[in-house]
Amino acid sequence: MNRFVWGLVVGVVAVPVLVIVYILSGYAPAAVTDRPMPLERLLAGGALHARIHREAPKRDLASFTTADLVAGAQVYRRGCGCHGLPQSAEQRARPATFPPAPQLFTPDGNVADDPVGVSYWKVKNGIRLTGMPSFKFVLSDEQMWQVAALVAKADKLPTEALDALKQPFFPPPPPPAANAPAGAPTATPGGQAKPQQ
User: Fold this and answer.
1) Using one digit for the tens of pLDDT, what is the confidence trace for 152-195?
2) Are 139 and 147 in contact (CB under 8 A)?
3) Whether this model's pTM surpasses 0.90
4) Which residues of 12-50 are buried (b: 16+ CB within 10 A; e: fewer)?
5) CA distance 78 to 146
6) How far apart (Å, rounded) are the C-alpha atoms in residues 87 and 69?
7) Mean of pLDDT values over 85-108
8) φ/ψ of residue 196, rounded to 5
9) DSSP state of 62
10) What domains are defined for the chain?
11) Which residues contact 158 (CB under 8 A, 6 or more apart)?
12) Cα 114 to Cα 162: distance, rounded to the nearest angstrom
């Protein structure tokens, strides 16, 4: 019996102490590019799915119009670059995150099978221990629903929404005015206006 009690005490005290020493020693994975710790995905994923299941609002995907999807595409291009664009669209450099951000316009990252309320919850609340921020104080409720509808229909978007996703990030500057009035300022190579003499 003494061996059992001794083993129990060692297990209850030693295991947490060893875990703390491991974490504080600097060997635990903390960088985005590190492999996950044992049970990290299981614990974080389980908590996330339970919370979403409990709180995700319900809304019919058919209630969104093409105009909603186009508006969602415009918001998506400004704030959701980590999740990629359709292949034919211009791609921006994406920061490394852990876990990697799902690419929502690829077969592996597509969330079209998820209810639109699940994507809305993720946009609104963000996801801890990932690079997914909360947009609760950045976007309006309607904008969050529009983005959620866009990704929920990522595999069957109307042409107008796809065209909105394909717009260049930095449109070319307008051509210089051909008939600029005399004395109008001109731009210097550094971009500052210089009055004409």
Assistant:
1) 999 899 999 999 998 876 667 788 776 656 655 555 555 555 55
2) yes
3) no
4) eeeeeeeeeeeeeeeeeeeeeeeeeeeeeeeebeeebee
5) 13
6) 18
7) 75
8) -75, 150
9) G
10) 64-87+99-165 (1.10.760)
11) 66, 69
12) 20
Q: Which residue shows structure tokens 């974080």?
A: 44
Cα gap 167→164, rounded to integer Å: 6
For the record, the structure tokens of 52 come out as: 């979403």
Say if CB 69 and CB 112 are below 8 A apart. no
Given the structure tokens 């699940």, which residue do they identify?
118
- Give the C-alpha separation, 74 to 54, whole Å: 30
Q: In the numeric block, which tokens belong to residue 134?
A: 């909360």
pLDDT one-digit tens code per residue, 101-148? 888 888 888 888 899 999 999 999 998 878 889 999 999 999 999 999
Average per-residue pLDDT for the chain: 82
Rg of the chain on CA atoms, in Å: 25
Tell whether omega for the bond before 173 is within 30 degrees of 0, i.e. cis: no
- Please spell the DSSP secondary structure of 80-109, one letter per residue: -GGG---TTSPPPP----SSPPP-TTSTTT
Q: What angle do CA 37, 111, 138 make, to 5 degrees?
A: 85
Helices 116-125 and 141-152 meet at what angle, rounded to 10?
A: 130
SS3 180: coil
